[in-house]
Design goal:
10% of the residues lie in helices and 8% in strands. It has 2 helices and 5 strands, in the order αβββαββ.
């Protein structure tokens, strides 16, 4: 398969990990929810993805969001390398969506962990958070309560 983005490494959608229902000649061309019929999405419980607005912890919200392949040298909007087709770059932002595909991986990596967070004791108004040394760099001198 050839396109203006360069040759795809695979020509079989099953080999790309997408399933046999995906047509690779049209996959990623134009803004559309291209993954909606992929094996990963068809085997998922998409009830949360059909909720409006989509909850942030919905692991498969990317299944119903539009995206397209872009040429990263000509597109300044957020894009990332494809995990399915080497040499291709996808963008949800081009189609008006946030990249929930990457977001859900980050979110799931935090599940079951205790997170230690700090709250600045003085917001500093328009100048930013309060640091005893007047520094805006991270130097462990930030004041305020800590929660876990």
């Amino acid at each position: 398969m050839a396109s203006r983005f360069g040759p795809a490494v695979v020509t079989d959608s099953g080999e790309a990990g997408l399933g046999s229902s995906i047509n690779l000649t049209a996959y990623g061309s134009g803004c559309a929810p291209h993954d909606a019929t992929s094996d990963l999405c068809l085997s998922a419980d998409l009830d949360c993805a059909n909720t409006i607005p989509v909850p942030p912890d919905c692991d498969k919200s990317w299944c119903v969001r539009s995206w397209c392949y872009v040429d990263p040298t000509n597109c300044r909007i957020a894009n990332k390398p494809s995990v399915h087709l080497e040499g291709r770059y996808y963008s949800y932002a081009t189609c008006g969506y946030m990249d929930s595909f990457t977001h859900t991986d980050r979110l799931s990596s935090l599940r079951g962990r205790n997170l230690r967070v700090a709250f600045n004791s003085n917001s500093g108004g328009w100048r930013g958070a309060y640091n005893r040394e007047g520094s805006f760099a991270v130097n462990h001198d930030w004041g305020g309560p800590v929660g876990e």
